[in-house]
Amino acid sequence: MNKQIPASIPLYIDGKWELSASANSQDVTNPATQEVLTRVPFATQDEMQRAVASAKKAFQSWKETPVSSRARVMLNYQALLKEHQEELAKLLAQETGKTFEDAKGDIWRGIEVVEQAANIASMMMGETVENVATSIDCYSYTQPLGVCAGITPFNFPAMIPLWMFPMAIACGNTFILKPSEQDPITPTKLVELFEQAGAPAGVLQVIHGGKEQVDFLLDHPDIQAISFVGSVPVGQYIYRKGTDNLKRVQAFAGAKNHMVVMPDANKAAVINNLVGASVGAAGQRCMAISVAVLVGDAREWIPEIQQALAKVKPGAWDDPEAAYGPLISPQARERVLDFINRGKEEGATCLLDGSEVVVEGYPDGNWVGPTVFSDVTPQMAIYREEIFGPVLCLMTVDTLDEAIQLINECPFGNGTSIFTGSGAAARKYQHEILVGQVGINVPIPVPLPFFSFTGWRASFYGDQHAYGKQAVRFYTETKTVTARWFDSDIELAQQPNMTIQLK
């Protein structure tokens, strides 16, 4: 592939780029202009069968490749990703609408996971106990599963694929990637660079498509594990269908993330962080703060929060003044506008309405301006459901205990944060809250990759999470060996062998 966007996105099967024979495809558009950037094919059954067969065959040799050699591929890969970061960011920005800086951040968080994958040897070490019984030792090995697959969403077309295939492949597996059909250009470039890093043919395959292609991955008996990031309904479907087929599944789903604001918090820090965390990336982040819970006198800050968000303007990816870009599609925009209307109808107070925002020079963009509701109750749709847009709900309570109860009654458990100057309040919150990732004076607590991304409850279906040590456990099995050697064999081993060996 050259640096220009191809007219049709190719598949990557058995180490070769090929145009699909499928008659079924869809346009990939720039969300700010509706310009068609390319077309993405929906892979045929034959193409998918060949991808799985290639991955299965490649596994036989890749699993025997020394772990140090696998780590060197990852070292090469992270160097190439850094070298091409700006090029990748421009592609990513055009197909997602993200601002250039946000696009670079998407790629950088993926690079950090690749760097962790280069440390795979230490993470795959087993355990040993000598003399578990008389002259008997016990030790364990960590071994790869086989062919794994990943189904990734539109909102992070670099970071989330890089959560998956580098860790799986570093562990000794082979991998089939099914990126979002809405923005496949960036994942294609990621795979091109992985090929340049020295990955052998067949270790990584790429197919494109929709539900039919996903069902193929969930049903195929040679695929051992499935990783998924996306919405709650699809996450539930993938987890149920995958586990029904006796596969290992990790499915990261939706969220409703709360920021608790205590009255002793630094007001300037709260407002600055809340603005970026709520509407950054147009709110299309599973870790976005979509609800601020103002405790006690912190409710008096509502006018200043509204004023700060009113200053935020969306715009095109290459506009240095733009705070965020458009939503991914016209359908996504209509969905967010519908939520805004429902919020008004259900009695919430719309302090700031971004429904009619205009971006000069881009009349066809999927724009929604910052939107703020107050007087929100837990029964309202804008609170119960994930909006996935630049919409912030403001709620007020009298005590920290009430804030904790409110959040723990919400079915989601992806991320949350508390802003406070009290160590005691922060400790109480982190201990009692039923959410997997907690920030203390940090708005979006996405952990660095030597930890794991640990959503809870309706935000995650499975047992082992993404990246870090849990990813290694997800992509491997443990083999335990119990061994005994007899002392009498030592004397035999020391005797010279004087016989002639006949072939």
Automatic annotation (TrEMBL):
GO terms for molecular function: methylmalonate-semialdehyde dehydrogenase (acylating, NAD) activity. Gene3D superfamilies: Aldehyde Dehydrogenase, Chain A, domain 1, Aldehyde Dehydrogenase, Chain A, domain 2. Residues 20-481 form the Aldehyde dehydrogenase domain. One of its GO terms (biological process) is L-valine catabolic process. Pfam families: Aldedh. Its EC number is 1.2.1.27. The keyword Plastid does not apply. InterPro entries: Ald_DH/histidinol_DH, Ald_DH_C, Ald_DH_CS_CYS, Ald_DH_N, Aldehyde_DH_dom, MeMal-semiAld_DH. It is an enzyme of class 1 (oxidoreductase). Keywords: NAD, Oxidoreductase. Belongs to the aldehyde dehydrogenase family. PANTHER family: MALONATE-SEMIALDEHYDE DEHYDROGENASE, METHYLMALONATE-SEMIALDEHYDE DEHYDROGENASE [ACYLATING], MITOCHONDRIAL. This is methylmalonate-semialdehyde dehydrogenase (CoA acylating). It comes from Microbulbifer marinus.
